[in-house]
Amino acid sequence: MLLDLSKRALFSQALDLTGCGRALRASRIWQGVLILNYHRIGDPQRSMLDRNLWSATQDDFDYQVGMAAKNFDVIGLDDLEDVLTHRRGRYVMFTFDDGYQDNYTEAYPILKAHQVPATFFLTTGFLDASQIPWWDDIAWMVRTSKLSALDVNRWTSSPVPFDQPHREGAIHRLLNVYKELPGESTEEYVEFLAAALQTGRCPKSVADNLWMTWDMVREMRRGGMSFGGHTVTHPILANLSSQQQDWEVAECKRRLVEELGEPITAFSFPVGGRSSYNSFTRTALETHGFRMAFTYHGNYCRPGHQDLYSISRTAIETDIDQRQFRAVVTLPQLFA
């Protein structure tokens, strides 16, 4: 049973004020693996891109890594299968999706300082040719549009007002439209927005230094970090044909093996909700030798977790302050 946002805030405060949180952390009230998922580290306030991709500031991430390392056994990708099937205890694992450059400039130094491993799932096409991902493209168009709303159109059933000052509600709604579209319609939709919002597409120059380079990835690998696949172009896999899914999985793995020179066995589903992948996705993963795949469902993995193609992760986002982070790792059965 997960608590809603208001109850989570109140309960996390109560855990701290009463001292129960510290006692529960010492009592080993849960067993298993809590896998935390991040995207970007830093301050999003001045960005014109999708601010919901930032998971924590540098200070908060430093606190989170240190707190987890002090209270739990932090494991890397190589340990996970053994922990899931054979070991008992309380384990925490850090993961990142996409491959943003701040993973190298901001997150990696913090992980090294705490001697904590993490796993980074890379969208290989973004590293190969710097580009604006669809979610950042849509966010940029909404933020820079001089309009006050998007009129009703074939894609939305009603007008989309641009809530001020940051237009987050409008961005969220238009991103959700994208996520529901069949793969062959997504580019048409983004081009429609570029014209209807009178902005054009986000300039390609914005992608300069947006993604890690392969040299950065190799340095991080030498430093004890692990890497996995996250497709080539970051589509919603379930919205593609089986042949398209197979290509996204196979080509992503080929590029990772080519650049890192080692087997790649782990994958995370783009977007990661239950409707974002299907049986064709699993077939592609099995065909191309991926041993495990990570979702974005929330919750944690109990001892004896069987399905390695559905490994749960919980999102860490900027609205999770230090108190709420303590609650997540103390009682993941309620907060994760």
In short:
With 336 residues, the protein is of the alpha/beta class. It has helices spanning 5-18, 20-27, 58-71, 77-85, 102-114, 124-128, 134-144, 168-180, 186-196, 214-222, 242-260, 279-287, 322-330, 332-335, and strands at 32-38, 40-41, 54-56, 73-74, 90-98, 119-122, 149-150, 160-161, 226-229, 266-268, 292-294, 314-315. Helix 5 links the parallel strand 5 and strand 6 (119-122).
Features:
globular, 336 residues, 6-stranded parallel sheet, 14 helices, TIM Barrel, 2 domains, two-stranded parallel ribbon
Could you tell me the mean pLDDT?
94
How would you describe the shape?
globular
What is the rounded Rg? 20 Å
CATH superfamily of the largest domain: Glycoside hydrolase/deacetylase
Number of separate strands: 12
The helix/strand class is alpha/beta
The CATH topology name of the largest domain reads TIM Barrel
> Which band does the percent of strand residues land in?
5-15%
Describe the largest sheet. Answer: 6 strands, parallel
From the 3D coordinates, which CATH architecture of the largest domain would you assign?
A: Alpha-Beta Barrel
Distance between the termini: 10 Å
Q: What is the number of helical segments per DSSP (H or I, 4+ residues)?
A: 14
Estimate nothing, just give the exact number of structural domains: 2
